[in-house]
Amino acid sequence: MTKNVGVIGGGQLAWMMALVAPQENIKIYIQTPHETDSAVCLGERTIFAPVDDVSATAELAKYCDVITFENEFVDLEGLQSLVTEGVCFYPRLTSLSPLLDKFDQRSFFQSQGFPVPRFSLYESDSDFQSFSFPLVLKARRHGYDGQGTVIVKSPLELQSALEKFKQTPLLIEEFVPFEKELAIMAARSATGEIKVYPVAETYQENQVCRWVIAPALINQDITEKISAIASKLLVSLDYVGILGIELFMKNNGEVLINEVAPRTHNSGHYTLDACETSQFAMQLQTITGKKLGNTRLKSSGAVMINLLGYESAQSEYLPQRKEIEQLGAFVHWYGKTESRQGRKLGHVTVLLDEKSPEKMYHQAQMMIEKVESIWYPQR
Ligand code: ADP
Q1: Residues with Cβ within 6 A of ligand 1?
Q2: I want to staple 6 with a disulfide (CB 3.0 to 4.6 A). Which of 64, 176, 181, 346 is the partner?
Q3: DSSP string for residues in 262-325
Q4: Can you give the C-alpha Rg of the chain in angstroms?
Q5: Residue 373 — very low, low, confident or very high, per pLDDT cuts 50/70/90?
Q6: Dihedral sign, CA of 27, 33, 35, 39?
Q7: Where are the domains positioned within the chain?
């Protein structure tokens, strides 16, 4: 039987979900204020309204069996009234509630015994006393792609960061001297079935993700530790849906949770081409009561490279996309009409066939170099 799923948000995550929806026998309904959003053309219907417009979500709910999210910019209190009227949200609002604010997230994980970096609320300048430079300042809410995160190396930089953030509620945390950044996608259904994806390595430049390699070149103990964290976290949140966990790995093998995104995530884009069930299909399966698919890789590994904007322009970048495709890559272009510095315009996945993990890592690095040299103007 066809199910109708509402998605709050219409960007590339909703678009990729809408692309796989027909295979799951699902129709997608979107709520977004932007007519040019990627997902709009694929949805059965779009409610054009801001993502935190609760009356628009009430309208969306009329068409849908269940509503899910593509971003964290939601009005939880407002949506609670719809739950009372019988609207079904997955993930549940109670699962989202500790996750939408970075301070609440850290506090929740700490209270549940998960490893996190040392952190504190910023209320007055004396809160900096227990931190030394470098330290990290983060907006508690609405930060994405590093927009709300500043790595502060000196008192002068601290002053300008505080001026930049002005009235924004902030959190202070220790700078973690990580060896690698890792990420894992994990999913849970309403019956409690859990699936975790391979642990991937992610690489950020200026706080924006440049590439992801799956599986990460780490030892089995760390993979198992992270998979166990993911499963435990899903249960402790009584979570239904998919989530992405970003972690820091130190050179002594210690892992700390950086952040949890209660939705599909950039670090899981490789699953679209490389896994038996993509993160987007998995999200739909978890929220519509299906048996969950397999998360296995279809090849030895995969590398995902983001195509980030590097200029302000209106271009489709067709020649570069064609050239990248000729490398044997899957190119996903989000159809955004405007490019700007650091904006995610698309991504590329290349399947890796080397059997030895070291050789595969090398193969991935070569691919990153090739794709980036085609995509970015020579630096
Ligand atoms: P966003 O939510 O915008 O993605 P994050 O808080 O995940 O921002 O930070 C983006 C990137 O900044 C991280 O992937 C990491 O590279 C760096 N970063 C964030 N917090 C820390 C930290 N405490 N120590 C070291 N690097 C950090």
Answers
A1: 117, 136, 138, 143-149, 173, 175-176, 181, 204, 207, 246, 258-259
A2: 64
A3: SS--GGGTTHHHHBSS-HHHHHHHHHTTPPP----BSSSEEEEEEEE--SSB----HHHHHHHH
A4: 20
A5: very high
A6: negative
A7: 3-89, 118-174, 178-375
Closest residue by Cα to atom 6, ligand 1, is 149
| Residue 172 contacts residue 120 (beta carbons within 8 Å) | yes
d(CA 176, CA 93): 31
Q: Two tokens at 266?
A: 């950039």
Query: Which residue, among 247, 242, 264, 366, has the nearest Cα to 12 in the 3D structure?
Result: 264
Nearest CA, atom 22, ligand 1: 175
Distances (CA, A) of 9 to 135, 230, 269, 271, 320: 33, 25, 17, 21, 29
Burial category of 183 from C-beta neighbours within 10 Å (exposed 0-12, middle 13-18, buried 19 and up): buried
Could you tell me the pLDDT band of residue 142, with boundaries at 50, 70 and 90? confident
**Considering the domain 3-89 in this protein, what is its CATH number?**
3.40.50.20
Could you tell me whether strands 45-48 and 26-32 are parallel, antiparallel, or unpaired per DSSP bridges?
A: parallel
Q: Mean pLDDT over residues 134-149, rounded?
A: 89
Whether the per-residue pLDDT at 379 is higher than 70: the answer is: no
CB contact at 8 A, 17 and 280: yes
C-beta of residue 95 within 8 angstroms of C-beta of residue 238: yes
Q: Which fold has domain 178-375?
A: D-amino Acid Aminotransferase; Chain A, domain 1 (3.30.470)
How many Cα atoms within 13 Å fall on the side-chain side of residue 117? 25
- Residues 266 and 212 sit within 8 Å (Cβ to Cβ): yes
Whether 163 has a binding-site annotation, put simply, is no
pLDDT (tens digit per residue) in 75-109 = 999 999 999 999 999 999 999 999 999 999 999 99
